[in-house]
Structure formats: structure tokens, C-alpha cells
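Quick one, probably user error.
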């Protein structure tokens, strides 16, 4: 049977939040006071509150107004009641509202008791309930029912029986009708639920047959009394098969026929097992509470009167504070507060707060009898509203917990500082780091991890990660999010090493990510989090691809250039050759073991020592060793020229450790060089013969025609200058010559070794053959003119020759500047030398020549494109 129907509806603890009136804390003081009065009354009483006349009723009024009302129906409006009681109560309420004074009335209402439908006379009185400025905020109503029925409905009429059955089915109690033979003739729905047997096993059978003879043993006397016309009530304890006892409260109400004789009785049965068990549990709970209080030596439990003096004192208080109960009874409880707290009035403030709020908690220092202090934690509550009945104070020593908390707090601060330092350190890593809790929620992410994903922050869940970023395998297939390293660590507890996947970031950039993840285990082996390290491998992959392409191009270049690669370990005297190296030397990897000794056997004569000397002479660590040598191929006996370019690597002491280099076939180039050298020598020989022939012819011609001696010398000097330039080019194999050497040869006849008067200098420029000859002739003419007319014609004069290169513009400038010679005047005519320098040189070089005849000395400036002169070395 539902507990709500046999539990009293009195003024005990009740959850008003479940009613239409709402939380009791939100009520007006007038409603609170009126409700306390009504619920405490034993007589039927109710309140009609507010404009909507909401009902608050007590248990006694329930049977008179409507037995179907639940406790949670409190707060329903008056119009929810049966019209027979709603109309008179509304009339009474309107009278009180209108007059703002008490009123009363009588009315008749049909009620159902277990003898049938009965019309009863009721008397109702009402009084207004004021609430501040509102004279009638509610109405207090008391009801009085006449114990004698006004009239009886026909006892056995079919309509009455049908009404009784309907009403009985609506009752929460078990109801059955027993005839004079002790047989069941009717049962309601509650009886069917309580006695779980079908009607065919109950109707027409005796009480003993239905309930069992053991349960029926205490019932015959009560049944006989009911059949004799007495209404009886009695309790029954019925043992159950599971060993429990079912407690029943039964009431037998006799029922009379039309002739007034008893034709049976109604058995109204209430299952009070839960209530009895609750009562027993309450008794046991009270006993446990008493034992707990007596044994709660860890707690000081103190009763204090409303003025703050101690009324009682348990053993825990004696142990904690040091006073015996005889010493402390009647003493002000402020005695165990510190002097500072007493001076601030904290004991009084604590009681005042408890009165106002119903509870005051505190944690502060307290003082024992011996003067020592302890950190006490507790609460004080009033025993009655407003503290008029005193206070209950509970106190516990939390000194150790406080000290432990302080130690823990310091440890936590240290841990947080360490965590902050670690986070700062992790934040500086170039590798991304993501940390999650055991469920995969991100708790830390460093800057690198966010940058790898192209975002400023990455505070998202694993599910959001999969939807925010497009993920692919390296082959372009979609990458399932549950296979990501971090997801596998979170979902399966797996450790994943170097997983690879591609991420398409929100900015459209696609990167190759490499990540490792693993669960982080606590001291007990439990998972306390997960960590993922991730790095962007896009650049490294691109570099590897570029390296492969470079290696491929190198292999192609080496193959096209017929070059072989080798490495020699000087410490072990072992060599590594590639396939091209074996082919160059005419040996095979199967029958030739590369080493310094075997390599020496392939070289001719002293060529091998040339290699060693070059390594010792030109091969400090990191510098290139260049040497040419000859070999004799074992496969065909052919002698071939080889070129070697290598880098020597040395230890810290300068000892040779190893060499790495390439070899290439120079045979054809050497042969071409020999042929070119032969041709150049032949050309030089023929040019010198031609110049000698020209000089001889000129000498014979000048002698026969009375040409001045100085003219013959000038002509011969020009031929010599031309010859010297040819000599320089010959030494350089007619591939151009250094400008510094061209200048030196051109001015050589005019240089005094003991007192040089011509100074030259400039960057290292290599002239072409054409520009070398042109500049040599121009410089010779300038030097000759300086000796005859310029600065070199006087003992104090000198010449400065300087040249420069403008890299940005690609221009070359050479300046011939004479100083400290005789005064210079502008010539009235141009001689051959001036025309050679001015016109011919400008035309040869595709540039400009400026002759500035300054009084202090000639200044000649030659400007031309650097490409016409040569190259800057």
C-alpha cells in the first residue's frame, strides 16, 4: 500500500516545494504562523490563503473535506473541492473578506463512511488573517461535524451498494465485506493488491481459507464482536515466508440490513509494516545516536544556554578542552576562545549569526585549560527558533589537518611552480606537445603544437579535432580519427611511435605530421593523462626529396662526366669506390680490393708520390686537393691521365684521418693541351720572327733615309712593347693575362729599381687577349710621353696608375696620373701616340678615353665595360 496514505499529514518535516505554495522560506510571516497553528491542531482546520483561496489543511480536516487529498495537494484552490463543501466555504470566505471580521455558518454534506452514504451536518467558523497593511490576506476556518447522521440512505439499495463499491475502490486502504458466515463477498482494488490472489480464490471463501489459519487465529473474537454490532480495531502481525513480519491494523465496522440486523461487516485493513519498521528504526537510530554521542571522543559536543553558559559537556569536550564537566558547567563558553577573539566579541557574534541563519560555522584558534592552542573546526546551531532554547556547539581539533593542509598547499604551490616551469620549458620546444586528462580533454598545449596546426589556440576535444582538420594518409586516403596516436592512447591505452599523417589546416596549407603518443601512468599504475608529441616533417620530407633529386642529378652528372667517387680512411687504409671509379681504372669489384696500396700499383712512376705530396702540402682540413696523375689500366694496358679533386679531413692534432674525392679521365684534355701548347709555341716563334723581320726592315729603311735616331728608337721601343705583351699572352696560353702583369711589362723599361717613380695597383682583373694588347700599347705610349715631356722628365716627378671596378654597373676605370713634373700645356696638334691612346684604344675597348692636360700633370682616364676588358677574379 502506498506509504503516503497511512503516514500522518501533520506538521513534521514536509517539502513545501512540491506544492503550489512554493518554498516555505518565501512565505509571508503571517502565512508561516497560521500554517504552524493549523498543522498543530487535532481538530479539523484549514486556511484559505490569498486571492485564489489556496488550501492549507491538517490531517483532521482531510476526512471531512475530501479523503482523496494527498499531502502534496496542499496549495490547491478552493474550486478543486466538491461543490457541496466548496460553495459554503466560498460563501463564508466572501463574508469574512467583506466584513474583515469573524463569521460562521452551517451546512449539510453527504459523506461516505463504512456504513454507507451519510448526510452530515457541519458547522464552520472563520476568522480573518491579517498580513501587515492587508487586513484579510487569508482566512482561518475550523470545522465541526455532528456525530449523529442527519439521515441514512437505504442500507441495501443497489444504488448504495454500487456507490459503496465505487468509493471503496477509490480508497487507499484495503476494504472487504465479510458476511455472517465469515465469507468474503466484496473486495476493493487495494485489497487485491495487498492480498495478491485472484477474486476466484477470495470471493466466497472464509477468512481462514484466504489468510491461513495461523493468521486467522487472533481474528474470530473480533469478527464475532463486529457481527454482534460492535465496531472494533486491533493490530495483527502476520509472519511472511521470507521470515519477515507484516504488521496490519484492522477495523471491523458492522453493516445492518433494512430490518436493522447485522448482515456482515466491512473489514478496513491498513498495512502499517513500513510505519512500524520506521518506528523501530527511529528507536534504534536514537539509541545509536546516544551511543555515538557517548563514544564521539573526537568531537566536543556542548550545550549552551541563550546567554552563552555551558549546560552540558561530553567526554570528547573534556578530552579536547581539558575541563571536567563539573568544572565547566555554568561557565561562559567564551573561556575557550582566544583573548583576541573575546575582545572582538566573536562568541556573541557567533550566537547571533546562528539565531539569524539557523547555523554558524567557524574555523579558528581555540584555547585549552592548560593554555595551549588548537585549530578548532565546528558549528553552532540553535535548539529552537531564535535561540531561546539555547545552542548546540560541536567542535573538533583540526590542528593536524590544518598543518597537513598548509604542507599540502606549499607542496601544491611548489608543484604548480614546477608545472609552470615545465610548461614554460615545453612552450619553447620546437616540437609540439599536447597533454590531455584520462578522458582526452586537452589540459596543455605548447606554442609549437598550435603553430603546426596553423592556429593560435587548440583547446578542442579529439572529436572536434577530427572535424576541424582534414586528415589524410600519406597516400591521400582519409585518415580515421580513431586511429590517430592520441585517440589510440586515450581509447585503447596504446603507446604509438612515429605515426605519420597529413593535415590540411584551416588556412589551406597541407603538412606532413609525425606524432608519438602514450598514456601517462600514476604511482599505482592508473592512467592520469596522455601525452602527444608532434612535429611538422614537411620541410624535412621536401629536403629529403630534394636530396634524392640532387643525388640523382649528381649521379647523372658523374655518369655524364665519367667521374668516379672514392673515400679513403687513413686510419684503416681502406677505400670505398663507386661503380664509375672501378670502370675508370679498368678493374672490377669482384677481383680488386680498393686500398692505398692497391691504388699505388695502378699509378705510373712517381705520380703516386705527387698525390701524397699534394695531400700533405695543399690539404689542411677542409681545403681542396687537386692533382693530375697517370695510371695503366689492367684490362687493356692503356696509359690514361686522371684528374683527382679531394678534401682532406684531419683530427684535432692535424693528423690525416680520411679523404673524400672524385677522379675523372683527363687523357683527351691532356692530349688537346699538348697540341695547343705546340701550336702556341709555333705561333709565338713565328710572331717573334715576324717582329724581328719588321724591326730589321725598319732599321735598314730608317738608316738609308736619314731618319732621326730618336724616331728609330721610338719605333723599336713600340715593337718591344708589343713583343712583351705577346710574351705575357704566350705564358698564359693566349687565354688572357692578369692586368697587373700587363701594366708591369708595359712600364718595365721606365722603372728605376733604386728609386721607383711609377706606382700601380688595383683589383685582380684578368684581361682578354684583345684588351691586353691594346692596354699594353697605350700604357707604353703614356710612359714614353711622360719620360720625354711629362712628370718623368724631371727628377721629382712620378706617376700613379690605378684601376677600379664598379660591380653594380659592370664598369672598368683605369687612371694614369702624372704629378710633380714640369708644367703641362694643351698640345697644338695630336701625334701618333695621342691618336693611339685616344682613338684606337677607345675603339678597341668599346669605351671612352679622356686626356686631361692639367698644369700639374697629365691625367688619362680609360673607361670601358668590364666585359670588354675581361673578368674580375
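Nope, works fine. Designed sequence:
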Amino acid at each position: 500500500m502506498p506509504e503516503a496514505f497511512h503516514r500522518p499529514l501533520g506538521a513534521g518535516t514536509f517539502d513545501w516545494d512540491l506544492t503550489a505554495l512554493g518554498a516555505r522560506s518565501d512565505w509571508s510571516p503571517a502565512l508561516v504562523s497560521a500554517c504552524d497553528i493549523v498543522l498543530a491542531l487535532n481538530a479539523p482546520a484549514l486556511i484559505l490563503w490569498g486571492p485564489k483561496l489556496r488550501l492549507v489543511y491538517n490531517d483532521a480536516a482531510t476526512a471531512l473535506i475530501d479523503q482523496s487529498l494527498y499531502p502534496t495537494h496542499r496549495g490547491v484552490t478552493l474550486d478543486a473541492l466538491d461543490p457541496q463543501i466548496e460553495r459554503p466555504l466560498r460563501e463564508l470566505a466572501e463574508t469574512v473578506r467583506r466584513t474583515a471580521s469573524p463569521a460562521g455558518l452551517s451546512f449539510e454534506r453527504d459523506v461516505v463512511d463504512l456504513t454507507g452514504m451519510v448526510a452530515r451536518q457541519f458547522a464552520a467558523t472563520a476568522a480573518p488573517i491579517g498580513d501587515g497593511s492587508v487586513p484579510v490576506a487569508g482566512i482561518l476556518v475550523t470545522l465541526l461535524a455532528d456525530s449523529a447522521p442527519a439521515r441514512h440512505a437505504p442500507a441495501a439499495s443497489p444504488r448504495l451498494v454500487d456507490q459503496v463499491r465505487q468509493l471503496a475502490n477509490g480508497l487507499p486502504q484495503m476494504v472487504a465485506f465479510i458476511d455472517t458466515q465469515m465469507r468474503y463477498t466484496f473486495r476493493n482494488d487495494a485489497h487485491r493488491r495487498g492480498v495478491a490472489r485472484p477474486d476466484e480464490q477470495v470471493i466466497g471463501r472464509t477468512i481462514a481459507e484466504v489468510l491461513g489459519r495461523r493468521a486467522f487465529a487472533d481474528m474470530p473474537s473480533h469478527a464475532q464482536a463486529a457481527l454482534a454490532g460492535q465496531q472494533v480495531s486491533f493490530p495483527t502481525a502476520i509472519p511472511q515466508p521470507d521470515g519477515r513480519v507484516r504488521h496490519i491494523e484492522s477495523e471491523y465496522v458492522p453493516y445492518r440490513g433494512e430490518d436493522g440486523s447485522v448482515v456482515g461487516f466491512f473489514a478496513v485493513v491498513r498495512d502499517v509494516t513500513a510505519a512500524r519498521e520506521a518506528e523501530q528504526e527511529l528507536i534504534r537510530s536514537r539509541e545509536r545516536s546516544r551511543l555515538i554521542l557517548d563514544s564521539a571522543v573526537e568531537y566536543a559536543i556542548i550545550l549552551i544556554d541563550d546567554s552563552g553558559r555551558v549546560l552540558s559537556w561530553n567526554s570528547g569536550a573534556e578530552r579536547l578542552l581539558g575541563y571536567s564537566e563539573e568544572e565547566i558547567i555554568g561557565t561562559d563558553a567564551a573561556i575557550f576562545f582566544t583573548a583576541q577573539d573575546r575582545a572582538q566579541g566573536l562568541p556573541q557574534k557567533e550566537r547571533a549569526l546562528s539565531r539569524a541563519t539557523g547555523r554558524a560555522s567557524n574555523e579558528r584558534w581555540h584555547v585549552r585549560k592548560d593554555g595551549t592552542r588548537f585549530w578548532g573546526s565546528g558549528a553552532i546551531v540553535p535548539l529552537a527558533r531564535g535561540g531561546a532554547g539555547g545552542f548546540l556547539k560541536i567542535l573538533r581539533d583540526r590542528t593536524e589537518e590544518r598543518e597537513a593542509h598548509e604542507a599540502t598547499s606549499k607542496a601544491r604551490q611548489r608543484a604548480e611552480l614546477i608545472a609552470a616551469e615545465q610548461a614554460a620549458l615545453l612552450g619553447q620546444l620546437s616540437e609540439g606537445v599536447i597533454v590531455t586528462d584520462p578522458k582526452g580533454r586537452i589540459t596543455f598545449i605548447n606554442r609549437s603544437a598550435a603553430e603546426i596546426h596553423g592556429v593560435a589556440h587548440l583547446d578542442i576535444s579529439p572529436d572536434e579535432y577530427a572535424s576541424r582538420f582534414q586528415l589524410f594518409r600519406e597516400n591521400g586516403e582519409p585518415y580515421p580519427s580513431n586511429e590517430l596516436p592520441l585517440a589510440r592512447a586515450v581509447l585503447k591505452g596504446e603507446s604509438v611511435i612515429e605515426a605519420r599523417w597529413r593535415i590540411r589546416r584551416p588556412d589551406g596549407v597541407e603538412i606532413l605530421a609525425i606524432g608519438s603518443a602514450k598514456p601517462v601512468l600514476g604511482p599505482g599504475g592508473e592512467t592520469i593523462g596522455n601525452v602527444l608529441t608532434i612535429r611538422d616533417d614537411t620541410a624535412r620530407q621536401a629536403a629529403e626529396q630534394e636530396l634524392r633529386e640532387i643525388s640523382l642529378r649528381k649521379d647523372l652528372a658523374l655518369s655524364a662526366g665519367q667521374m668516379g667517387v672514392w673515400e679513403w680512411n687513413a686510419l684503416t687504409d681502406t677505400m670505398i669506390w663507386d661503380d664509375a671509379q672501378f670502370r675508370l681504372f679498368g678493374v672490377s669489384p669482384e677481383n680488386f680490393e680498393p686500398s692505398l696500396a692497391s691504388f699505388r700499383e695502378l699509378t705510373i712512376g712517381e705520380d703516386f708520390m705527387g698525390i701524397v705530396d699534394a695531400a700533405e702540402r695543399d690539404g689542411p682540413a677542409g681545403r681542396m686537393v687537386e692533382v693530375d696523375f697517370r695510371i695503366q689500366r689492367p684490362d687493356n694496358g692503356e696509359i690514361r691521365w686522371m684528374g683527382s679533386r679531394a678534401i682532406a679531413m684531419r683530427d684535432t692534432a692535424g693528423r690525416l684521418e680520411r679523404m673524400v674525392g672524385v677522379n675523372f679521365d683527363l687523357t683527351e684534355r691532356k692530349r688537346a693541351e699538348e697540341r695547343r701548347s705546340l701550336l702556341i709555341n709555333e705561333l709565338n716563334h713565328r710572331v717573334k720572327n715576324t717582329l724581328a723581320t719588321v724591326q730589321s726592315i725598319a732599321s735598314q729603311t730608317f738608316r738609308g733615309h736619314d731618319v732621326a735616331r730618336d724616331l728609330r728608337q721610338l719605333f723599336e721601343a713600340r715593337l718591344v712593347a708589343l713583343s712583351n705583351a705577346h710574351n705575357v699572352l704566350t705564358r698564359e696560353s693566349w687565354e688572357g693575362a692578369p692586368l697587373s702583369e700587363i701594366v708591369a711589362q708595359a712600364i718595365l723599361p721606365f722603372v728605376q729599381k733604386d728609386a721607383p717613380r711609377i706606382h700601380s695597383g688595383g683589383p685582380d682583373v684578368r684581361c682578354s687577349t684583345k684588351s691586353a694588347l691594346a692596354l699594353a700599347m697605350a700604357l707604353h705610349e703614356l710612359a714614353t710621353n711622360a719620360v720625354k715631356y711629362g712628370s718623368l722628365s724631371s727628377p721629382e716627378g712620378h706617376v700613379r696608375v690605378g684601376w677600379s671596378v664598379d660591380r653594380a654597373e659592370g664598369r672598368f676605370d683605369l687612371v694614369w696620373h702624372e704629378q710633380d713634373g714640369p708644367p703641362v700645356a694643351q698640345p697644338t696638334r695630336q701625334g701618333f701616340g695621342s691618336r693611339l691612346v685616344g682613338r684606337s684604344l677607345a675603339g678597341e675597348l668599346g669605351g671612352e678615353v679622356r686626356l686631361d692636360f692639367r698644369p700639374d700633370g697629365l691625367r688619362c682616364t680609360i673607361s670601358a665595360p668590364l666585359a670588354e676588358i675581361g673578368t674580375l677574379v
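Confidence is low (pLDDT under 50) at residues 1-12, 149-160.
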